[in-house]
Amino acid sequence: MTFLTLPRHALLAATAATALALAAGTGSAQTPDDVLIVGQIAEPQALDPAAVTAVNDFRILMNMYDGLVRYKDGTLEVEPALASEWSISEDGTVYTFTLREGVTFHDGSAFDAEAVKFNFDRMLDEEHPYHDTGPFPLAFFFSAVQDVAVIDAQTVQFTLNAPYAPFLTNLAYPTGLIVSPAAVREHGADFGRNPSGTGAFTFDEWRSNEAVVVQANPDYWDGAPELQTVVFRPITDANTRTAEMLAGGIDLMVEVPPVALSEFQGDAFSVHEQAGPHVWFLILNAKEGPFADVRVRQAANYAVNKQAIVDDVLEGTAEVAAGPIPPAFAWAYNEELAPYPYDPDRARELIAEAGAEGSELTFYVTEGGSGMLDPVAMGTAIQADLQAVGFDVTIETYEWNTFLGNVNPGLEGKADMAEMAWMTNDPDTLPFLALRTEAWPDQGGFNSGYYSNPEVDALLEAARVETDQDERARLYREMQVIVHEDAPWVFVANWKQNAVTSDRVEDFSLQPSFFLLLDDVTKN
Amino acid sequence: MTGYILKRLVSAIPVLLGISVIVFLIMALIPGDPATAILGSYATPENVEKLNRDLGLDQGLVARYFIWLGNMLQGDFGRSFALNRPVIDEVLDRFGATLILAGTSFVLCSILGIAAGVVSAARQYGFADKAITFVVLLGISIPSFFLGMMMILIFAVKLRWFPVSGMWPIYGDRNFLVLLDHLAMPALALAVVATGVVARLARSAMLEVLRQDFIRTARAKGVRERRVIWRHALRAAMVSIIPVLGIQAGFVLSGAVYIEMVFQWPGVGRMLVDAILKRDILLVQGGVVFIAACYVMFNILVDVAQALLDPRIKT
């Protein structure tokens, strides 16, 4: 047995190490009081609202900054924030904002009209001395802005080059959040790692790949938050994020995978759900092939069992979509619109009428991507439904960026249908960019299926310049009816965003905007 | 010896240049560009073109390569646009974490693997040999990411012995014990497969050596069995074990990608996966070149170690 000496030493060492690790015993540590630990889906890109594009980053930013306006709690309607009131000129091109008095940035500098002008000039004016602190990929939300003028310290005036109704909702979007000019001047391109705003929480530290820490702002103009500290932890793997939540390492988890939801039943956790401005759909190639016939497009809408996809594949984390505008935009949504029912017999009839029996279809599916939910499983279910009514469907699967590179330039000559999903801040965005004739890919839009209906074009153009909200809503409702009938897409699902909180967290609710607002949250 | 080392170092230069060309071309040729990845739904051709201009991606392929190479030779790896910080800062930060993880795993798999192999060989066909062979086969067959997930489920969620993920706790001191606590599961999960490979190789290398004349001579001279195995036989067997350890070092380093994803270890593997998905070109290129350089250096070290053990190799 002499040769066992060395392994025995090794074994001893290993045992000792394990014992030491166990003695350190931080494994089951509870998170501290007054500190909320949030499990995020990724490391933020930057904490500069003008420079980022991901919802993941917005979740942090909305707690550190304010915009001139914001979404009213629980809705997608605009209410005052840093601007206490505003007026819009008759022709809809001049917006004059009165700013809230006595607000200061976290770095102590004053919030005033000059600061607002600085923010928009930095994004929009290529000659601005701090334009090089970008790039600012979403600056085009404000491309209608011709000029920002300081009237006096508390009044700022935006002049647009044409009436543009979504302007106010774009201001409520994170791209419109106001940063401290003093901090931008001090840190330049590193502002994104040394942020300063006016929001409920002030920046404390950013430990790369570990955590972003923010502290309560006791002087917040809208009332100091209840929590002392919030820690945002990037945990990219959904299974690991679930495990952290179960083990008590985080207090709040966003984007719970549908299959993991059952783990959180019971008193120790609360599951939150909120439908948002999201549509998941199939682009149909209306230019060539079987889907050039409206009857075949309608047939596809009848053939796909959307309820089964929502219930079984997505485990109830989405609702069946009826049209191109998600119901979260309550003011613009057409309540009378019902989703295409699941009716394979009707689908077969329509296909027979069109003489499209046995058509071969190429179907682009992605492996995953922003807002795409569970695209492979959903694509497979859709394929089976379409096969059942007599199509011969071939799936081609691509990684997200490759997929976008294939789909965005248009489906002509490549495919008959493709998966797609959008999250937007205004009912205007998706139809305007993806359903108009002038939005065909060769003209720089996202109408990859070449849908074209002059009536829809006219309604969308009119809605865009209409400043009367009720009239705008009427135009959108009319547009939805036509698009529903023309079926340029198969309308599949509206995602319900979810989150889980531990039983120590109270007063938390998700917003339809998909932002994460934490200033009223408490923890016991 | 110095001449040999110099020769090996010079031969590494074309290898690294080749790697830089390959990684540059891969990033340039894969479909999807950074602007599309950043803009997502809003990637109109107009927006993409403007952003590409802002990112400096509107220049020709050859020009871009030489600008990158030139900057790199001066120590400037560029700036990651997805993380908004210098590539070299990010890579060094992350590489430290990976070295701790992969290094621990490497030491674990070397010690456990060699020990298991030697015991197996010394007790060929005995109970210990059969038990070890069984465990080793099991270890080789389980994918490390699956093992990692199971470990999290059992030891972190159910038993709560270890933290689920990360390298440091969000709160509290940062000392060696705390690090060990976070390191235990990922390092073990990463070491399992490599341990199996090393054990199998060590076993056959030892069996080979134990059949040789000098072992019989040693035994005949009355050297104690423990000494025969651990001094005489193992030293001779190390000549064929060490190159495999070098290969396993690379294996552990690449296997770290999965383990870092599962355990959210802030290492370079997870960084590269994220960077590739976001088409963060400079971060991918800089990261790959840096890792490749380290790997080449490590191989040179292994070769030198081997040359020291067996002078015949140095030719």
Give an account of the 3D structure.
The complex is a heterodimer of chains A (524) and B (315). Chain A is of the alpha+beta class and 524 residues long. Chain A folds into three domains: 1-63 and 199-251 and 504-524, Periplasmic binding protein-like II (D-Maltodextrin-Binding Protein, domain 2, 3-Layer(aba) Sandwich); 65-185, Alpha-Beta Complex (Dipeptide-binding Protein, domain 1); 278-497, Roll (Dipeptide-binding Protein, domain 3). In chain A, 28% of the residues lie in helices and 22% in strands. Chain A has helices at residues 5-24, 55-61, 113-124, 167-172, 181-187, 238-247, 294-303, 306-313, 344-354, 375-388, 400-407, 429-434, 454-465, 469-486; strands at residues 35-40, 69-71, 78-80, 83-88, 94-99, 145-152, 155-160, 201-207, 211-216, 229-234, 252-254, 269-275, 278-284, 318-320, 360-366, 392-398, 417-423, 489-502, 505-506, 522-523. In chain A, the strands form four sheets. In chain A, strands 1, 8, 9, 10, 11, 12, 13, 14, 15, 16, 17 and 18 form a twelve-stranded mixed sheet that branches. A four-stranded antiparallel sheet of chain A has the order 4-5-7-6, with helices on one face. In chain A, helix 7 (294-303) runs antiparallel to helix 9. The radius of gyration of chain A is 26 Å and the shape is globular. The model of chain A is unreliable at 1-8 and 23-28 (pLDDT under 50). Chain B has helices spanning 2-29, 34-39, 45-55, 61-73, 87-122, 127-141, 144-158, 176-210, 213-220, 225-263, 268-277, 281-309; strands at 79-80, 85-86. Chain B has a two-stranded antiparallel sheet with strand order 1-2. In chain B, strand 1 and strand 2 form a beta hairpin. Chain B is globular and about 85 Å long. The model of chain B has no long low-confidence stretch (mean pLDDT 86). Classes of the chains: A alpha+beta (524), B mainly alpha (315). Chains A and B meet through helix 1, strand 10, helix 6 and helix 11 of A and helix 2, helix 3, helix 5, helix 7 and helix 8 of B.
